[in-house]
Design brief:
- The protein has 496 residues and is of the alpha/beta class.
- It folds into three domains: 151 residues, Pyruvate-ferredoxin Oxidoreductase, domain 3 (3-Layer(aba) Sandwich); 194 residues, Alpha-Beta Plaits (2-Layer Sandwich); 59 residues.
- Helices cover 35% and strands 10% of the residues.
- The protein contains 16 helices and twelve strands.
- About 11% of the residues have low confidence.
- This is 4Fe-4S ferredoxin-type domain-containing protein.
- One of its GO terms (molecular function) is oxidoreductase activity, acting on the aldehyde or oxo group of donors.
Length: 496
């Protein structure tokens, strides 16, 4: 019995492996009377052909009503036991509440009571959807017996909508993204032949922009009349989905009708226009931008210069606005004081749309570093969160500017990125006069001796780094130490 959010149905074939007569639970913002109209045709056919029983609940609405924010785990757990029949309704509720007391009791009675209330409210909002047949007539025979306490709600007959599951990446994506990364995104990576993968293990950068996860139920909407253009919302965005630009007013001639702008409040750009734009399909809905916004509407309590609104109604409109926004020229930062937040956030981020958790606290700093230094930046990444959201398949958030300049990123196994990074620095310092005799021949070296050389090399590089731990060494210091290391390597090689 899969429990799925509606937005995932647009991307994945979640009913591919469901058994005939199975049960499908959907978390949807649309109620029982209209949810059928928002299902892709593939899902409708699967529900009908496999005689699947279909239940729906707006779990996020229930969570918000009892003060639990976006935490829906207790609600979905209650739905599972109510539908599955593993325990009776009374037994399941008793056991769930006992688990709540055990799990959240130390956090206070208020938290426990909110979860209790969520359990009680769940069954009142859980409904079984009667699936229409091909002609749009209610087909009760496919449903079977309703679960106790869960009402099968009738709805008007509908005609199948004319939309299908969208492709994993847009049609305008590069060929490699469509043919190789696309199947991986769709969960079909096992179907790819080995010959389709890069033979040297090198993958293109800047591919995260094609993924379009659409996981946010709500996205930020900009109010240009209130905005003071401070750039704080752009600064804290973990996924670089909120951006700002200043540009020539004449460029608005070809802008979409819904594209918003305001007079730029920058002393460096007195006659320019300003736009704050959100990437609707890449936002994760964390809401940090709203928390960071310092502006409050005095005439409307709770309203700020940026506010969270439902994503689906705005998606297509803001998708077109985002595409136009990206075509606007980047700011010339030659004489710009990037020490100021509002100025630094005019710079293009070269780390975008990563797979980091919603509301991540690390990625805003990484994004800022790429804005300031990304076009001449080398990253030696240790294994950890930053290697997972920064370099995992199928997509890469590190990207390049219009000139093809961007961070050079690589990950070193486990926690030896200090040695790995030192090697990168040494190579960069000596890129023009690297001694040719350093690359000595290894043709006749046995596996055993090769291992001895590698072990010695690793330990000696660590020694160099530890000796320099009190401060970043100068280029001369690094070169002299690496020269001594080179001599030691020769001695190791001669003794093999």
């Amino acid at each position: 019995m899969p429990a799925i959010s509606l937005l995932f149905l647009e991307r994945f074939d979640v009913l591919k492996y469901s058994k005939p007569g199975g049960v499908f639970l959907l978390d949807s913002m649309y109620d029982v009377g209209e949810v059928w109209n928002f299902l892709p045709q593939e899902v409708q056919h699967a529900l009908r052909d496999k005689h699947i029983r279909f239940y729906v609940i707006d779990a996020h609405k229930v969570a918000a009503s009892v003060g639990m924010g976006g935490r829906i785990n207790t609600i979905m757990q209650t739905c599972f036991f109510a539908i599955s029949g593993i325990l009776s309704r009374e037994q399941s509720i008793e056991q769930i509440k006992r688990s709540i007391q055990k799990t959240y009791g130390k956090r206070g009675e208020a938290v426990v009571q909110k979860n209790y209330q969520a359990v009680d409210e769940t069954l009142a909002h859980l409904h079984e959807v009667l699936i229409p047949d091909e002609e749009g007539v209610q087909s009760v025979a496919l449903i079977g017996t309703a679960v106790a306490g869960v009402q099968a709600q009738r709805k008007p007959a509908v005609v199948l909508p004319m939309f299908t599951r969208r492709p994993p990446v847009p049609a305008e994506a590069p060929d490699f993204v469509r043919s190789v990364l696309g199947p991986m995104i769709a969960g079909e990576g096992d179907s790819l032949p080995v010959s389709a993968l890069p033979c040297d293990g090198t993958y293109p950068v800047g591919t995260a922009c094609w993924e379009k996860r659409n996981i946010a139920l709500e996205i930020p909407a900009w109010d240009p009349d209130l905005c003071i253009q401070c750039g704080k919302c752009v600064m804290v965005c973990p996924h670089a989905v909120i951006r700002m630009k200043v540009y020539d007013p004449q460029l608005l001639a070809d802008a979409p009708e819904t594209f918003q702008s305001a007079e730029a409040r920058f002393k460096e750009f007195p006659t320019m226009k300003y736009t704050l734009q959100v990437a609707p399909e890449d936002c994760t809905g964390c809401g940090l931008c709203v928390e960071a916004c310092p502006v409050k509407d005095k005439s409307q309590v709770g309203h700020k210069a940026i506010n969270m609104v439902a994503q689906p109604p705005l998606r297509e409109r803001e998708k077109a606005n985002w595409a136009y926004f990206l075509k606007l020229p980047e700011v010339d930062a030659t004489d710009l004081n990037v020490a100021a937040i509002k100025n630094s956030q005019l710079l293009q981020p070269l780390f975008e749309f990563s797979g980091a958790c919603s509301g991540c606290g690390e990625t805003p700093y990484i994004k800022l570093v790429t804005q300031l230094f990304g076009d001449h930046m080398i990253v030696a990444n240790a294994t950890g969160c930053s290697s997972i959201y920064g370099g995992n398949l199928p997509t890469t958030p590190w990207t390049a500017n219009s000139e093809g300049h961007g961070p050079a990123w690589s990950n070193s196994l486990f926690e030896d990125n200090a040695e790995f990074g030192l090697g990168c620095v040494w190579h960069w310092i000596n890129r023009e006069n690297m001694p040719l005799n350093f690359c000595f021949s290894m043709k006749s070296v046995s596996v055993r001796n090769w291992c001895r050389i590698c072990c010695t090399l690793t330990s000696q590089i660590r020694w160099v780094f530890m000796r320099s731990a009190n401060g970043w060494p100068s280029s001369d210091n690094v070169c002299s130490k690496m020269d001594r290391l080179q001599q030691r390597m020769r001695r190791v090689y001669s003794n093999c």
